[in-house]
Amino acid sequence: MAENPATTVGIIAGSGVLPFAAVDSMRKRGIKFFLYPIRGFCDPERIKAFPHHWVALGQVGRLTRLLRAEGCRDVVFIGGLVRPALSDIRIDFGTLRVIPALAAAFRGGDDHLLSGVSRLFEQKGFRIVGVQDVAPELLMPEGSITRTLAGAESLADIATARALMHALSPFDVGQAVVVIDGHVIGIEGIEGTDGLLARIAQLRAEGRVRAKPGRGVLVKAPKTKQDLRFDLPTFGPKTIEGVAAAGLAGIGIVAGHALIADADRVVATADRQGLFVTGLPL
Amino acid sequence: MAENPATTVGIIAGSGVLPFAAVDSMRKRGIKFFLYPIRGFCDPERIKAFPHHWVALGQVGRLTRLLRAEGCRDVVFIGGLVRPALSDIRIDFGTLRVIPALAAAFRGGDDHLLSGVSRLFEQKGFRIVGVQDVAPELLMPEGSITRTLAGAESLADIATARALMHALSPFDVGQAVVVIDGHVIGIEGIEGTDGLLARIAQLRAEGRVRAKPGRGVLVKAPKTKQDLRFDLPTFGPKTIEGVAAAGLAGIGIVAGHALIADADRVVATADRQGLFVTGLPL
Predict the structure, then answer these.
(1) Exposure of A68 by Cβ count < 10 A (0-12 exposed, 13-18 middle, 19+ buried)?
(2) Does residue B282 have a pLDDT over 80?
(3) Which residue from A255, B20, B22, B183 has the least number of CB within 10 angstroms?
(4) Is A183 in CB contact (< 8 Å) with chain B?
(5) Per-domain residue ranges for chain B?
(6) Of the partner residues A109, A172, A203, the one whose CB lies closest to the CB of residue B191
(7) Subunit contact A190:B168, Cβ cutoff 8 A
(8) Does residue B178 sit in helix, strand or coil?
(9) Does A166 touch chain B (CB under 8 A)?
(10) CB contact under 8 A, A178 and B189
């Protein structure tokens, strides 16, 4: 596991920069790893620099065989995945044997799905660890990471957003909320945070967000029941650009429960735009 | 008031067909009325057929004078209004005197705003009544109004949506929710129901809603604390078209707490598309 560099960590790698940021972090700390990029999600160019075996979604048999072949016991899922439809999953022999568990996992919400996948791997003798276990410096810290700090009005908007997200937590939805001057303006559904921010920018362009630019917050938080070994809220430079385009004052993110992709660019972009980015206590 | 045809009801008329549907209904039942169309919102062509005085948003002094001039004591607000920014409101002498109350009303959410407006009129000796008091046949009835009925899966999705909306009720947001196969796909923010449905259609076009067409529901309900004399959820043929474009199975709407604009076209459109529209118990 993470504290024992003698063991190789298997990285199941989805889309985006996070798998590679995690790899950098693990290298620096001497943690051995082997990558299992998911076809159609992981960047095929960047993966070339690292030891890897490609896998397709749902190829549980192939994946477990290749994990064992490289001596991986700890497994971490990093990067983006769009929730697949059952019909998109390639079936192999290993998958066939676990289909009842997989079908059960797909009936619930995302949390349910991920817990199901986790149980499946644990039954096969692997241990699922979180990004925070293998690359803790990718986690959002508590407090401001920007020059600009959240003002009293932004703190009040953050409190409103968090209360709403707490109320939504049984429903496996709403990892991001926009609140301006006490009004809930938008709640993230399956469109994702970038989609939510684009909608706010559009509503502002149409004159339907009347608050002056530079007011209001985006708040990102994990769902209360979320399995933090998967699916941590992630933000990066694109999130900051979206918040700027939506005319908000800044972002509040639950510290230790969200990943920063490309932290240097996040801070530079936010500072240039005069936005705050602050890590909130859980 | 509604039960006493000797009194004239003052209709403050916003956008859309509802003010005119209400007028038809009141005429049939011999209730006297006088219209106060709001400039920029009410249809200037259709209003010509009825006795009316134009008013601008915020002209409380002019409006109360004109209501008294026509002997109106009961006042009903019907039709659409976009929440105005304070700077859009024309100030007259009557408004100036009530500015503290108006400013207080604008600090809260929509519910707060409307309660504030209501108190303002009540302090001046008027009584605010609901559309349901003067034109009850515009209200959504309980049960199905379409040939197609909601199946077991749709009923389960409706129950999920209602539980979520109940959880959201303290936050003055979320009058509509889309649930497909138990998953919460979208929650209405300030974009409105048409915006929510357009988003679902777009996500479907992008392959991000993987359920087959003809599954899932739109549920519309009043917010728990909502003042039902204002701002009843409204739906019409455009809502049905939006639900069809989003590939859902149908609509559940809380009976007696939502208005149908153009009921004949709603039913004809839904029947043609094979969608259900059902009135839910409160």
Answers:
(1) middle
(2) yes
(3) A255
(4) yes
(5) 8-135, 139-280
(6) A203
(7) no
(8) strand
(9) no
(10) yes
| Assigned token pair, A77 | 């899922």
Q: Residue A62: how many CB atoms within 10 A of its CB?
A: 19
| Contacts for B84 with CB less than 8 Å, ≥ 6 apart | A210, B57, B58
Length of chain B: 282
Q: Which of B113, B34, B16, B17 is nearest to B76 (CA)?
A: B34
Report percent pLDDT > 90 for chain A.
53
pLDDT in tens, A85-116: 444 445 555 555 555 555 544 444 455 555 66
Question: pLDDT tens digit string along B101-145?
Answer: 554 444 444 555 556 677 778 888 998 888 888 888 888 999 999
Judge if A8-135 and A139-280 fold alike in CATH terms: no
ipTM for the predicted complex comes to 0.74
How far apart are the C-alpha atoms of B159 and B163, rounded to whole Å?
6
So what CATH class is A8-135? alpha beta
Tell if the CB–CB gap between A190 and B167 is shorter than 8 Å: no
Chain B interface mutation, best of A83, A190, A202, A208, highest count of B Cβ atoms under 10 Å = A190
Residue B252's φ and ψ, nearest 5 degrees, are: -115, 130
Coil/strand/helix, residue A247? coil
How does pLDDT run across B153-197, given as a tens digit for each residue? Answer: 999 999 999 999 999 988 988 889 999 999 999 999 989 899 999
State the DSSP string of A3-31: T-TTSEEEEEE-BSSHHHHHHHHHHHTT-
Measured in angstroms, the CA of B15 and the nearest CA of chain A are apart by 16
For residues B70 and B34, the answer to whether their CB atoms sit within 8 Å is yes
- Other Cβ atoms less than 10 A from the Cβ of B19: the count is 31
Q: CB of A178 within 8 Å of any CB in chain B?
A: yes
Rounded alpha-carbon distances, angstroms, from residue A28 to A135, A157, A176, A260, B26: 10, 39, 32, 18, 77
CATH superfamily of A139-280: LpxI C-terminal catalytic domain (3.40.140.80)
- Which chain B residues are Cβ-neighbours of A163 within 8 angstroms? 170-171
Q: Which residue of B has its CA nearest to A159?
A: B171
CB contact under 8 A, B82 and A189: no
Is A183 close to B109, i.e. CB distance below 8 A? yes
